Amino acid sequence: MIAASDDWRLRDLAVLWHPCTQMREHPHALPLFPVARGEGAWLIGFDGHRVLDGISSWWTNLHGHAEPRIAAAIAQQAHTLEQVILAGFSHAPAVTLAERLLALAPHEPGRAPLAKVFYADNGSSGVEVALKMAFHWFHNRGDHGRTRFIALTGSYHGETLGALAVGDIPLYRRVYAPLLAEARFAPSPDAFGSRSPEEAERKAHAAADALAALLEANAGQVCALIIEPLLQCAGGMRMHHPTYLRRARALCDAHGVFLIADEIATGFGRTGTLFACEQAGIQPDLLCLSKGLTGGFLPLCAVLTTQTVYDGFLDDSRERAFLHSHSYSGNPLACAAALASLDILQSDGVIARNRVTAAAMAERAAQFRDHPLVAEVRQTGMVVAIELHPDPGPSEDGHAVEIAGRRGLRMYRAALAAGALLRPLGDVLYWMPPYCVGEAELDVLVRATHAALEAARPCD
Ligand SMILES: *Cc1c(COP(=O)(O)O)cnc(C)c1O
């Protein structure tokens, strides 16, 4: 049976180039784990070896792997209509999903609600859509000077060139810097190191003041602010106080700048509410949803926006239209998966059940607070982050990058050997399990975390 996995490893490395990987690290520093199937929170190898998916397969999975209701919905859709051009044609899953997303989207009393849905086929593409829409809207009004975006330090919005331009993770961005669009970075409201909610709120106000100054300094030149509300994921699971979002919303209004909420990772219950924006009571002008949108089954992105943005493109001229498209925009299978995932979220009371699970995660994470290597344990909803003091050993980059440096690789391997997939982001170990995770499975995460911390000790 072991031989079966080894055979797959050889065949894989003969032909595949893996994402986010220095391929030189395979197979020795970075073991390859061939997965035969998934079941609930578990990934199961060809040799029957099981590993708990502690990161929901890159933050996509919500209800467990191979969830039968979503699998059935996709199968049924595949037998009915697998794909159709979405320009000039329509289909039931795309319309129904748009109706349901708009009904669930964050809504601020007194503000015109999000009213239109534009489909892309992955998160980065959805970010491109939001950025292009914001720019193009001003352009259509004859305002050609608004060519800049503002993003936050430590932000991540994807890997395509437009998305990379508003990202601030040096290892991903540095090489491509000459190719990137103009962006300005406002300081993150990151609450790292805060000893109280009041201190986190003071940091949020300080960051908002800096944003105000940046908007002032770039008056008339900015088309949008893009943020990951409450939780900057790839930047190291850094969390902030909702006050920042209220201030940012007000500042965007005051400067006539669009607010883009990138809820690609935070959406669909990850932060404890269906959308992170709800916790601040704000509504963005553009909302990007992906990852958990389909329950983690298929790539899809929905960009929600207002009637005002939509109306800015209505004209007799084709050039004023938003001509962006992807071959698989609004793919029926992906929309059917998303509808089935929404059914589960709503009918199974997942958000309420997650409150119990999040409390169980908090209870277990508390034991790591006093660990000598740990600087901070923090949590927002279904995400726990255990941040280590910076690695005193040799490291490639001080920034949060997936399993970077030798310590990161040691922690990754130790967690895997202890039965869980945990991919540290720089100095940050985190738990982001599928929502179906049970108490006994959380104990596996605890054991894997102990093993990872053991492996993180400086070796002498
Ligand atoms: C993952 C992610 C993206 C990019 O989505 P892809 O589907 O990987 O292209 C964008 N923004 C945030 C906040 C993300 O976490």
From TrEMBL:
The record, for SUPFAM superfamilies, names: PLP-dependent transferases
Q: What is its EC number?
A: 2.6.1.62
Mind listing the UniProt keywords for this protein, alphabetically?
Aminotransferase, Biotin biosynthesis, Cytoplasm, Pyridoxal phosphate, S-adenosyl-L-methionine, Transferase
Entry annotated with the keyword S-adenosyl-L-methionine: yes
In which compartments does the protein localize? Cytoplasm
Checking Pfam families in the record gives: Aminotran_3 (PF00202)
Reaction catalysed by this chain? (8S)-8-amino-7-oxononanoate + S-adenosyl-L-methionine = S-adenosyl-4-methylsulfanyl-2-oxobutanoate + (7R,8S)-7,8-diammoniononanoate
Write down which residues bear the modification named N6-(pyridoxal phosphate)lysine.
291
Q: In which pathway does it act?
A: Cofactor biosynthesis; biotin biosynthesis; 7,8-diaminononanoate from 8-amino-7-oxononanoate (SAM route): step 1/1
The molecular function terms of the Gene Ontology recorded here are:
adenosylmethionine-8-amino-7-oxononanoate transaminase activity; pyridoxal phosphate binding
GO BP term (any one): biotin biosynthetic process
- This protein's record includes keyword Cytoplasm: yes
Q: Where is this site: Participates in the substrate recognition with KAPA and in a stacking interaction with the adenine ring of SAM?
A: 20
**Which positions bind pyridoxal 5'-phosphate?**
123-124, 262, 326-327
Say where the protein is mainly found. cytoplasm
Name the needed cofactors.
Answer: pyridoxal 5'-phosphate
Q: Where does this protein hold substrate?
A: 58, 156, 291, 325, 423
HAMAP family, from UniProt?
A: BioA (MF_00834)
Q: Family, per the entry?
A: Belongs to the class-III pyridoxal-phosphate-dependent aminotransferase family. BioA subfamily.
- What is this protein's function? Catalyzes the transfer of the alpha-amino group from S-adenosyl-L-methionine (SAM) to 7-keto-8-aminopelargonic acid (KAPA) to form 7,8-diaminopelargonic acid (DAPA). It is the only aminotransferase known to utilize SAM as an amino donor.
On subunit structure and binding partners, the annotation says: Homodimer.
Q: What is this protein's record name?
A: Adenosylmethionine-8-amino-7-oxononanoate aminotransferase
Source species = Thermomonas hydrothermalis
